[in-house]
Amino acid sequence: MNKSVEIGHHTSQQYNHELEEVRNLLMQMGGLVESQLAKALKALLEQDSELGEEVAFSDYKVNQLEVEIDEHCARIIARRQPAASDLRLLLSIIKSITDLERIGDEAEKIARHAIRASDINSGRLNISLRHLGDHVREILRESLDAMARMDSAQALRVARSDSQIDQEFDLLSRQLLTHMMEDPRTIQESLNVTWCARSLERIGDHCKNICEYVIYFVEGKDIRHINLKGRATPAEIVASQKAVELEPRRLPAGPEPDPDSVQS
Amino acid sequence: MSLASPTLDTGMTKQLNTTPGTMRQAGGPLDIETVVEELKELPQPVGRPLLEDPKYHTRDVCVFYNETKQAIFNVNLDIGRNEVIAMIGPSGCGKSTYLRCLNRMNDTIAGCRVTGELLLDGENVYARSQDPVLLRARVGMVFQKPNPFPKSIYDNVAYGPRLHGLANNRAELDAIVEDSLTRAGLFKEVKDRLNLPGTGLSGGQQQRLCIARAIAVSPEVILMDEPTSALDPIATGIIEELIDTLRQSFTICIVTHSMQQAARISQRTAYFHMGYLVEVNDTDTVFTNPGHLLTENYITGRFG
Question: Chain B: nearest CA to A211, how far in angstroms?
Fold first, then answer.
């Protein structure tokens, strides 16, 4: 029998409305976070400190939504005792908003860098973030899209492409390191850019988490901490659950260059 | 895709895990004839209906009332030792009928015919040589409404052991009564009034008295048909706790309309629908990730 996930058709119309509402709030939060990130990047690349201020100021809206959605979910759990797909929906929403809120925080950090960088008028290097920034925005958009459509195949695709972000980040860090070694006067600025790149890389990780929650909701299997390589479809991953391969923990890829080694 | 788009619903339907013989769009209004067609084609229940070394081994169980109405269709199910298995499903789905087959309670219903294979520890429950009275000593039953005999508390519990000659003298009988009442969590409350009528107890106490009566003859299996539906939440909690302790010694099959109760107390859950056994699996799986759409719809409250 086809297993399908959708939230309507409960005997209780009120229950339908409640689930629909919490999902709409989630989408609203996703849209808000997406625009925060877009604005933060724009502020950074165009040295627009005013826009940066706006982003930093607006982060409270993201936080508010997180609290509101949490309250909605708690209320539904208390009053409806959801089971099966309803339960998985709520669990994935509760988890997703944590990641969305953190993405919001990272966007705020980037915005604050943008403000500072434009103050000292040294945003020259910020340009190097354009490509990574665009890529991360794309990933975020696709993750939210997968969430909106509850499309586990797309979620898997996106989750897997997070490794490209990681590679790009490594590459950028190395470039910046070279920069700093060549001309120690750029260290301050390079470090700032590194921190922004680090924020973007973290956003990629949060997007990956969101995609994993989508897969959990649709397929009913938790695929976190599983090596996604070489498996084409969510079903294949679910099928391979018996031989769970825990991915060896990767070491953080040098976002914080040791100051001593840079100086020498 | 715009996130604030109001067309979220259209994209929500996701299909996967297509099993041959089962093809229906989910969630939509349920067309009963289509459902029955699909159930007929369901080769066997979704999940894990069969076990190794089960307590009960039942195959192709069909029950007819008056030859015209078939109540259950080809149920294949194993019930494990020392497990609590919950049977859930909407009214008229056959779960109680199936439960009553397990100790031949259907014998008393005129025009009721049971076919198929029902083995208790490999022994045919419906064999001609099987004495239903002895069978029911091995397979006790607790009903929806507490039904103590109009006798004293002591005699209620002592009735079975006396009937089956389980005690040789008064002291042994006293020990059985005390032990049964203790295991049913009732002894402390009634030890000073064992000679008062059992019908004078509260509903929850009466139900525990019935459980004490059921376990007094040391059965192997206890069948419970909605044992707490007439009780308040506190008495229900006490009985659920009791069921979990009794699991150490008995196999327990429970029919319940409360899905939360099934989720709380059972290790396995069987979902019946219109006389068909649709899904059997670990309770955890059934309540977080059921395999069949009908199960999903039922436990998430999507039947109207």
Answer: 15
Topology of domain B57-299, CATH: Rossmann fold (3.40.50)
Report the pLDDT averaged over residues A29-52: 92
Cα dihedral: B286, B288, B289, B290 (round 10): 30
Q: Does domain A13-255 have CATH number 3.40.640.10?
A: no
The domain locations on chain A are 13-255
Which ranges in B81-152 belong to alpha helices (H)?
A: 95-101, 132-138
B33 touches chain A (CB under 8 A): no
The answer to whether the CB of A168 falls within 8 A of the CB of A231 is no
Sequence-separated (6 or more) residues with CB below 8 Å from residue A78: none
- Residue A226 CA from chain centroid, whole number: 18
How many A/B residue pairs have CB atoms within 8 Å? Answer: 124
E strand or H helix that includes residue B193: none
Proportion of chain B above pLDDT 90, given as a percent: 52
Q: Residues A74-89: what's their mean pLDDT?
A: 90
CA A172: distance to chain centroid?
19
User: In angstroms, rounded to a whole number, what is the distance separating the alpha carbons of residues A42 and B108?
Assistant: 80
What ipTM does the predicted assembly reach? 0.72
CB interface of B with A, residues 183-242, below 8 Å? none
The tokens describing A105, both together, are 């925080």
